[in-house]
Predict the 3D structure of the following.
Amino acid sequence: MVENGYLALAAVLFALGGVGVLLRRSPLISLMCVELMWNAANLAFVTFARMHGNMDGQVFAFLTITVAAAEAAIGLALIVLLFRRREHVDVDDVHSLRG
Amino acid sequence: MPIDLSSVNPNLLIILPPGVLAVFALVVLVLDLYSQEKRWLAGLSLVGVLLSLVALWFASRPGAVPPGDYFGRMVTADHFTFYMVAVLLVAAGLVILFSMDWVPRRLPKVQVEYYELVLFATLGMMFMAASRDVTLIYLGLELSSQASYILAGLLRNDPRSNEAALKYFLNGALASAVLLFGLSILYGLTGTTYLPEMLVALGQAPLPLLVTAMVFVIAGFGFKVAAAPFHLWAPDAYEGAPTPVSGFFSMAPKAAAWAAVLRVFLEGLSIPQVMDKWSVLYAVLSASSMLIGNLTALWQTNVKRMMAYSSVSHAGYILVGVAAAARAPEVGAGAVLFYLLSYILTNAGIWAALVALENQGEGTEMADFRGLAQRNPALAWSLLLLFVSLIGIPPTVGFFGKFFLFRAGVQAGYVWLAVLMAINSAISVGYYYAVVRNMFFEKTEKPRLELGSSLQAVVALSVLAVLVVGLGSSPVIQYAEAALGLLGR
Amino acid sequence: MHPYLPLVIYAALALAVPVGISIAISLITPKKPEPSKYLTYESGHPTAPMLGRFPVKFYLVAMLFVIFDVEAASFYPWAVNLRELGVFGLVEALVFLLVLAVGYAYVWKKGGFQWR
């Protein structure tokens, strides 16, 4: 079944994104990895929609794409704010707050 | 003159409260572009919230909107929706009220954007509470979260605000991705995003995958409500974000997330095989949140940060009710709903005091509370009462909130959790007392602390509500417990 | 075979692939550290620090494009089902368009489209 292939891809993308968020220190790359995780979920939604033969999953994925675009805009804006202040941005350098 | 609503399409009536809020949000946004004077737009935002409450009152009257799903099954009319939307609107109204003096001073360039974002975030939360389709619950969650990220970073020239926003954003984005993936598995197992249908279809689903999806969903929501061990973003976000925004975070978004948790788990994942599992997981989260929140709060010197850990511990208390709801749904969910109201009413006054300190150019460290009883006795005594409510001592609303949670825990067989909650309430006396000691037993040379009329109103409302809702708690808890009875189970 | 067994296998696979790749890379990579290897290579063009590479205004234009592009894409499903959705669909689409227009007006008035 070709759907299984897509599900496998979704799971692999999600795991890669998760590993990336946890291991990489740059907020920019963290953001890209989170986007990867979102798209993995979207792929799963669309695949499941095809397996079940209804549109709910496709609608969900469609709306999530918009959500992800808005989220990326906000994330990049916040990172640009930090860029203006520092030469480069690294999660470990962001520690003027304790914790 | 009684207004006849029976001829009005219930679809329009149920959408009226969020609709009114959305229209006001858009109107305020457009007026901002053409108006030099900004202060009245804050008032207009508040009017929007109040009119939305009026619309809710019309929609929730018996017979106006028969219980059921509207707008293509996206919006649900039941007591749960009405209760939570009312609670969220009250929270938004209090937040706008206690920000009115602060915003022109600290955010002169983005005054109206502040109110905009609060309104849009509230709109998202209303849909989170009002829907039993995970599509709309997720969209509402995202609308409120994204508005919250920007709110946290509104102090553009303050590196701490930038940092708070970025940390909140990265954690929040990760949480929504995890939640989304969990929801996608649930959809894959059942073929529907509508919770009641999901419940029916789950019986055939293989348990291991179901549990995997459940863990993803719990982790995703765990971040949003800042339950330990998913709470690490909360202290930094609360400390770095603008003070009224931190107050907003501690009140509204969490309440909406709890509403979504109750919806998803009680209406969607309440088949016996998984109920036991999520109940135990939530019980463990509850114990860790209470202990970590309270014990870490003891060491804090910044009151905003202390309130962040306090909110983690309160998430732990609320989780007692969520865990109990698996075995005693009405009592557990009713206790959670009541506690949300009590927490919001109590927190409003405390954050108003923090905002008042910043309005006079002071900080929010413990030391800034020194001699507050000299500087403004009424405020100091009000704060004492509000802390008493947070600890859970009668006759305040906090006591009744904890009592209902305790009762739910015991009824559901979580006696150990209920006892742990009582012990933790005793621990929490330690850090609240630190503030009280500074207020009453330290001397200061600083001048009187003036509140301004809007802050006075918030503190007065908060104190009044803590006493009135506390002593008159029985109709509220009855409504809250009945809310679940109508969930269509 | 259980019908969902493949899914379980994929979940295991999903975990194994990234972990396996990371381990394999660290095992087989020959390690000869040399300073020039860690320099950024940009088609022979001398590299400058990250800051100032692209003016921020590019970001603003790109972001506004992405947002409005994605929103505009939402019209396609409605357009395809225009007849079935009827007046109700039309009103919904107009409401959506109105909200979008308010956002557009906001960006315009705040100078988001100015190249400065």
About this structure: The radius of gyration of chain B is 21 Å. Chain B is about 75% helix and 0% strand.
